[in-house]
Fold this protein.
Amino acid sequence: MKKGKVLVVVPVYNEADRIKDTIEGLKKIDLIDEILIINDGSTDNTAKIIEKLGVSIITMVKNQGKGYAMKKAIEEKDYDYIAFVDGDLGFTSIEVEKLIKPVVLDKVDFTIAKFPKSSDVTRTKGGFGFVKRLAKKGVYFYTKKEIDTSLSGQRVYKKKVIESIEYIPNDYGIEVAMTIQALNAGYIFKEIPVNMTHRYSERSLKGFKHRGKQFFHILKTLIIMFFRR
């Protein structure tokens, strides 16, 4: 059915409590040829757990950022199709199959997961709403396309799409940057509804700090892309 290698990349930072279930879910997907975990300088028990999961691993000595970890996989691994998956999906990672199929069947060039609306409500309580609005408006500014999934970390690309992307930031601006460039290159994409769940930043000081960092990284990415035009 598919023509080429499907590589799934899972960048993780301190995901000891959920990474095992995430990988077990991915292992149930027959379309996947290789699972690669990028351990981005985790300081918890993540390293010991992933060593026992029977998957490929690249370890960063210190935390470099999500975008940096994703670039590392792109540069060091061979693939024909590449999927990016967050490490905290748990067993719902099996839903990634819905993203892979349309791409390997050549129906689209890339796919992005669209979480249930109930998930958005929960995320908004953790300060996610203002981050999502910035990302959505930023993508529209550059592409004149309104999409709801510009921040989703669950996505699948054909190799040619990745090769067309010139700017990959090292931080949380990664998804917005990749979305804008792929759309402007004219590639066909689809937002795929999924029944995934993952950890949310709660309404706490720690949660708001995390969302604030996301907001800053995305804003910085949008500004950099303006001057790169």
Summary: The first strand starts at residue 6 and ends at 12. DSSP finds nine helices and seven strands in the chain. Confidence is low (pLDDT under 50) at residues 119-126. The two ends are 39 Å apart (CA to CA).
